[in-house]
Design brief:
Two copies of one chain form a homodimer.
Chain A (H helix, E strand, L loop, with lengths): L2 H30 L1 H14 L6 H11 L7 H25 L3 E2 L2 E2 L1 H6 L4 H24 L5 H30 L4 H10 L1 H15 L4 H28 L2 H4 L5 H5 L4 H9 L2 H13 L4 H13 L2 H22 L4 H17 L5
Antiparallel strand pairs in A: 1-2
C-alpha cells in the first residue's frame, strides 16, 4: 500500500473512533449546559474536516511498527493526538486572524457569528484550552499502564510548551526581522515538536527499545524540518488548484519562512520595498506574487530552502532504516519523506 | 496563628521557591531565544505581584494536614499550582479585555506595548497555553511517586477542563441573560474547581485516606460557592479603599453574579433600564452605582446572595471537622471560611 492509501485506511479508523468520542462528549456536555454541547458540536465539525490525519496516523503507525495489532487503547490515544493537533490550530487561527481552516470557517469565526467578534475570540481562547485538557484526558484514560502513560503525558506536555514557545517567536518575527538562527530556533520547536509528540507516543506505547526512541526523536526532528520548509514553499509557490487556497498568505501576514529570510538577505531595494508594501497592505495581486517569486528564485533562496528540506529528508530516511520497526512501517515513513522531497520539484 | 498570618508565612515559603524556579526558567529560555526569556521575566513579575497565594497555600496546608513536615517536592507542586492559577488569569484578563491585574498591567497589555494590540493578545494566548504546560511539568517532575502524580495530573486536567467550560458560560452570560440554574452550572465549575484542584492535590500527596478525599471534595465545593458569591458581592459593594480597585466592574462588563441575576428577576423597568444602560456605556458613575446597589438591596438580592454564601460556609465548616486533618490545619480552613462569612456583613 502506498503512503497515501495507508493514511486513508488508518485515518478512517481514527475518524470512526473520533466520531464516537465526540458523540459521547456532546451528550455529556448537554446534560451540563446546552451551550457547552454547542461548543463541542462545532469543535467536532472543525476537527473532522477533510485532512490527512498525518499526526494521529503517525502515532498509530509507529505503534504498529512495534506491535502487530491495533486495539481500543491506541485508538483512544490517537483521539488525544487529534485533539492536541486541533487545539493548537484553534489558537493559531485566532492569533493569525485567519477566517478559514480547510475551506470552512475557523473556530473563532464560527462563534463570532453567534454574537460578535469578541465573543467568538473568547470562545476560541477558552475552547482551545479546554480541548488541550480533553486531549490529555484521552491519553490519561486510554487504558495503557501507568508507566507508559506518564512518559506520553510528559512528552505531550513538553511538546505543548515547545510549540507555544515557537508560536510566540513566529509572531515576533512578523514584527522584527529574524536571521537564520532565529528562524532555526523557531522551527526547531514548531513542526518538529508535533512529529516528535506523535511518532514517539506510538513508539513508547508500542514498547520500542530505548535506542529506537532516541533514533525516532532524530527521525521526527528531521521529518519536521523537511516538512515545515516544504509546507512554507507550498504556501508561496503552489497554485490554488494544487493547494486548495490562494498562495502568498505567509507573505501578506509578514511571516518569515526560510525562503523569505534568505531572499531578504540577498534582495535589492526594489524587491524589499515590494515585500514590505504587500505586507503593509495585507493584500497581494497576482503580478506582485509573481514578482516576489522571481526574487525568491533570483536570490537563490528557493534553492537554499529546497536543499535544506531535502537534506533533512535524506537524514530521516537513513535513520528510519536503522530502527527496529517492521518493514511495512519503515516503508510508510520512508516513502512519505520521499514524497516530500519529490514534491519540492513541483514548485519552480 | 490566625488564618491571615498562616497565609503570610506559607505564602512567603512558596514565593521563595517560585522565585528560584523563575530564575532557572529565564536562564534556560535565554539560551534558547532572548525573547522567550523576556516572556518568562514578565510572567515572573505578573505572578509574583502581591496577593494572598490562597490556592497554593491551600495545597501546602491540606498536605500538612496529613504530614508533619514540608519538603522540596511539595513546594515544587505549589509552584505548579501557582502557575496553574495564573495561566487561567492570563486568558481571563485577555477575554475580559481587562487592562489591569492587581494594580499593574495585565499580561496582554504588557506585550501590547512592545508592538501593538494584536501582538500583546497573541503573546497572551500562547503564553497562557505555555504556562499551563509549565504547571503540569512542575507537578510531573516534583519528585512524588508516579501513582500520586498520576492522580494529581488527572485532577488538574479535569479542573482545567471545568474552569474553561465555566469561562465559556461566564462569557455567554454577558450576551444572554442566565437564570439561577445557568448561574449554578457556571459557578459549580468555576471557583469550586480551583479549590478542588488545590485542596485535593495537597491531600492526595499527603496521603489522605479515601474517605477524607471525598469529604474534602465537598469541602472545596462549598468553600468555592461561599467564596465566589462573596467575591462577587465585594466587586459591587466594596469601596476602592476596602478592595483596591473601583467597584462595579462586573456590572460594566455585563457579568451575571448571583445578586445581579436575582435583582434582574425582581427589578422594575427603570432599574433594569439603568443596568442595561451602564452595561452598554461600559462606564458607571458613583450615583449610578449607588442606585444599582439600592436596587440589589430593595429586591432582596443581596440578602439571597449572602444567605447562600453563608449556607455553603456552614456546610464546609461541618465537613472540615469530620476530616482527619490535624487541628492546626482544620483551624486554618475553618477560620478562613468563618472570615468569608463574617466579611459579608461589611457590605450593606
Amino acid at each position: 500500500m502506498g503512503w497515501e492509501r495507508t493514511l486513508d485506511y488508518y485515518g478512517s479508523l481514527i475518524e470512526k473512533r473520533l466520531k464516537s468520542y465526540f458523540s459521547d462528549l456532546i451528550q455529556r456536555a448537554e446534560s451540563y449546559h446546552s451551550f457547552v454541547g454547542v461548543v463541542y458540536e462545532n469543535f467536532c465539525e472543525y476537527s473532522l474536516r477533510k485532512g490527512k490525519r498525518l499526526a494521529s496516523c503517525s502515532t498509530l503507525l509507529s505503534y504498529k511498527g512495534y506491535t502487530s495489532d491495533i486495539k481500543e487503547d491506541i485508538l483512544n490515544v490517537c483521539v488525544g493526538i487529534e485533539l492536541y493537533r486541533h487545539c493548537i490550530l484553534v489558537h493559531d487561527d485566532l492569533v493569525d486572524k485567519d477566517n478559514f481552516r480547510r475551506g470552512e470557517k475557523s473556530f473563532h469565526k464560527i462563534f463570532s457569528k453567534f454574537y460578535d467578534r469578541r465573543f467568538g475570540e473568547g470562545v476560541a481562547v477558552f475552547g482551545g484550552d479546554l480541548i488541550f485538557g480533553l486531549a490529555l484526558k484521552s491519553i490519561l484514560t486510554s487504558g495503557f499502564p501507568i508507566g507508559k502513560i506518564e512518559k506520553v503525558v510528559n512528552l505531550l506536555v513538553e511538546g505543548y510548551c515547545e510549540v507555544n514557545e515557537s508560536q510566540i517567536l513566529d509572531l515576533l518575527f512578523e514584527y522584527k526581522d529574524p536571521d537564520i538562527n532565529d528562524w532555526s530556533a523557531m522551527v526547531h520547536k514548531r513542526a518538529t515538536s508535533l512529529f516528535k509528540a506523535s511518532i514517539l507516543t506510538g513508539a513508547i506505547l508500542g514498547g520500542a527499545p530505548e535506542h529506537d526512541i532516541n533514533l525516532l526523536m532524530e527521525v521526527a526532528t528531521n521529518i519536521g524540518y523537511s516538512f515545515d520548509i516544504q509546507d512554507d514553499i507550498i504556501d508561496t509557490f503552489a497554485t490554488k488548484d494544487q493547494y486548495g487556497r490562494k498562495p502568498g498568505r505567509d507573505i501578506i501576514l509578514g511571516k518569515k519562512p526560510l525562503h523569505i529570510i534568505v531572499m531578504r538577505q540577498n534582495a535589492n531595494k526594489d524587491e524589499l520595498n515590494l515585500l514590505n508594501y504587500v505586507e503593509q497592505k495585507g493584500y497581494i495581486t497576482k503580478a506582485q506574487l509573481e514578482s516576489i517569486k522571481d526574487s525568491i528564485r533570483r536570490t537563490g533562496a528557493l534553492k537554499v530552502a529546497k536543499e535544506k528540506s531535502k537534506k533533512h529528508g535524506e537524514i530521516a530516511k537513513k535513520l528510519i532504516a536503522q530502527t527496529h520497526m517492521n518493514n511495512e512501517i519503515k516503508d510508510f515513513f520512508s516513502s512519505f519523506v520521499q514524497y516530500i522531497e519529490d514534491s519540492l520539484e513541483w514548485y519552480q
